[in-house]
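Fold this sequence, please.
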Amino acid sequence: WLWTTLMDQYPLQISIPRAALEGCFSGLRRFTKYVICVDDCGKIYERERRFNSFLWLHNELRREELACLLPELPPKKVLGNHEAEFVERRRQMLEGYLQALLRLPPVIQGDTFWAFLDADFATAVVPRFLCPSASHAATAQCLMQLSRVAAKEANVFRLCCPVVIDRLVSLAHAEAKEPLQGPVQSQPCLRSRLLGRQRLSSLLMPLISHDGSRQGLVRAGMFGALLALLYRVTDDCKASRANERSAFPEAASLHQETCESIRVCLHRLLEASQGETLLHLLQQDEGLAIFRQLTSDESPSLHPVAAALLWQGLQNRAVVTALVGGTIPGQGASPTAGGLPLLGRLLDSTDLCARLLAALSVCWLLQQDALLDQEQREAGLAAIEPVVSYLDHAEVRAMDSVVSELAPGAGASASGWRPQAVGPQRSGHGISRSSTCSVSEAQLEASSLRLSELVAAKRDTSLVALLQSLCSPKELPRLGLLLREGEGDAVGGLALAVLDHYARQAELQGLAELASLAPLLHRIVEVEVAGTPSADRARAARVLLRLAQVRGSLEEPLSLLELRRRAKIFEVLSLDFETSRVQADGRLRKAQEKEEHQRSRILNFGLTQAPHVGDASLVDVGQHLCQLSEQRRSLDVEVARSGRMLECLEASLFQRGMTHGLLKEKMQKLDGSLRLQDKEEQKHDEARKELRRCEEIHRQRLAETEDLLSRVKEAAKSALLIAKQEQDARRQADDLAIREVHLAEVCHSAPARVERLQICRSDSERRLKDIQSKAPAVAVETEKMERRSSLLKEARREVAGAMRSLDSVRGGLETFKRSLNSELILTDEEAKELRKLDLQLHPVCPSRLRCSQDGICKGSRADVVAADLEGVDRDSMPIWDTVRAEQDYRSNPNYRSFLNLLQERERLWHAESQWLEAVSRRTDNRLYELARQNTCLEQEVLATVAEEDQFRREIEALDDPEGHVARHRECVSAAAAAREAAKAAAREAREAEGRQQLDEARLEPSRVRIQEAEAELCRARLAAAAEADRSMRARSDLLVLTSDLEASVRSDLEEWRGVELEERQLDLTLDTVSKRMGVEAESRARLRKEVWNLIGELQELDRRLDVGATGADAGAVRGSCGLSFTQEPAG
């Protein structure tokens, strides 16, 4: 029932829409093909099958002995099986048969049904997955096949169906509810279940990338199912470690790979859905319950996963509201209001990564307005404050690990690094300021580099990876927002701590991403905001110093603003150095007091002297005394080592003090240089202002001169235009005068010219008629030559075919000759072969000839050929006379007579080909001549028609006496008006020339003023260049000083890490001395107990021997035994 319901929901449909009769319709070869249509989630394809194929499918399924009852197949029919009614009824029954098979799980899980349909691999995999699996191995196999299908983008649409997604979610829930470890599960079963879980997570990756399937996964609750599965996998992993005998060797690695793949799926799903999947989970009743399981004390390894999911999901505003318990827009109040206790659990986690992510999540909640009340905000700020110290303690733990390795006997010599004293050395119990030990700068740099490598190797790798992800380009804007909004409080302090630790651990290439936060960090360093701790400013300064090192590696020039910012960074770091040095001095004094106290106790009680037992028979006492001696020797070494370390630390602090003094001097020098640079910049600014004033004056005078020059150019242009107008007016007047004379002449000579033009027009018409009469003759001859050319082409093709036939016959004749016994006497078979070759000699003669029955060519072809070849040189025509050769062959058919006939015909066809070539050339030449004549006639016709049109237009123009008189009068009046216009234009030209001369006179003083302004501008530029040169030299000196100071500060930072390491090493050594002193006290107590037991045994021995020794005698006995022991006061 479950399988039928799933298949009804899955869009895979099989139908037989039609059947077709094929084959011969008149015999027994007719057959029916049924067209099977498969609709696979919208992808439709068709297959054609005969009834025999259905019968084969049914027999194969019966042979497999499936655990189900097969449907009934329609019976086979021999007669009447092609009738339309029968075919339609069988089609319906076969369609029902296939649809019934589609709902049988054993059939679907096999290969026979899909082979019958010739279906794609993807078409068969999804229905198999929907079938209820018989074992975990089968489920794992189906998941592997589904992964292969989903790997191709073109197949993902099949997995977007709700029924498939619901099946995946139910499978994840089923795996989450059933424990992996059990008494009845064998190793193969465990392996298959582990592989199934791993393949399920790998299957979800392409589905998450697809929009349709991702939305289905969110709605179906896959996020919650994966969380529950992750919790179950973690529990199974712990159980596998506890029960190593029941697990196979690679079970632990498979558990880890499965956890990692599920974690990646969760993050991908949350990121792709933009937090919608987390919101969907939190809106359900069991949403927070799943997160409570992940954040419980029983599963500390899942705390980072839960914290990372919450931190990633909080980018969605609705998730923030749902987690706090506010009102979601469009959905009302959130049903879950217990999200804050989850963050509280994570803040109390033992995993530092979970603490850090939870603290950042709390910071993100604190930046949301109107979601938290004042009490919640204060509690949140108080909860995230210790996380900064946790990060610092993680760095201290890494240094402690390095200290433990550098301790004597722990590989210190192999590490290649030892703290080296620089400065005053201890002499006895005091400090000798006169004796100093210096180390080269290269050695210090090498030691600092080696120390950084050692500390980097001991850092928590998960924390390092988390810091890298938080400072990645994707997450850095969120960190910048926390830094910007939380400046001055614990939120900003946590963001700065993350940046500071990342800057310590990352390479220079990875720090370039932090450049976007540089303005905000500069503001924190430069502006002393109320409430901002000095430690936060120092962290920001350290990050900026590392960024400056990145910029220095790029060799970019520094501006004056950058130099001032560097000076401020150095000032803040100098103050931080001073504070650290004072605190270190205090800790050093306490360590010295503790060391002096321990040294005095050791000297007073003689803890460096080995106790003596004289009697070798006291074995137990001797063993205790040997142990005590070894402990005292070790204690002596530890005390001496602590003394040396105190000397080294004191020398390092003394060196730090001197370095700090040098840094102060350099800072003062840098401040003085900055003030001098400010003065130089002021002078430079004044020079630039003077230069700008001179440039402005120069521009103004240039503008005036340009204005005058433009006016002069306009005047010159106007004068030229007026002169041109005057010239045009004069030319027009002259033209009109000439036209007046011409019109007067036309009025007198028009009748005679009209008569001459009429005569020329008649001559043109006569020439046109003569030309047109020649055209038909040329056209007829052209048509005749074209027809002759086509006939010659056909004849040439005929000759070419005949020559090919002759070549073929000659080849056959050569073959025939090799098989002959005699060329003159032939057998019947050879004569028969020769006649076959004779039949291939076609055509016998050209088509222009007609052959008689006896083969003699006579006459030419009738009328058509004679007309077409009229004018052809008939004397050069080849004469076809093959009578003799024909008669020789017919009378005596043998090889030689046939060879003579073949050679005669080859000669005649070759002559025919040469004659046709000559005739074709002459015909083509004649066609070319005729085409040229036709072109000349057409050109003459066009020229004659144009000449006639010209004569007609001239006649029409001259045959108008009244018009000639009227035009003459108009021309006379126009000529008078043109002469008046020429006089007016001459007056305007003289006026324009005068204005141009006046503007040119004004232009000369303006040019003189421009030269003066240019000289003043040149002087100002020289002064500004000199000031800029001095400013650049001062800036270069300032840059050198800044670089030197930056190197000193960076070196001091690296040296301070060595001092911190020495301090931690000293603390551990003092603690070791204290522990050894406690061990010393316990050893003395045990020794004292053994001695008193020995005394009691001696007294009992005296009593038994009736010695009657007194207390003094007992003391004498103890003295005679050689026991020297001084009882020390308690404590």
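The chain has 34 helices and nine strands. Strands lie at 12-22, 31-40, 43-50, 327-328, 332-333, 423-427, 430-437, 612-613, 1123-1124.
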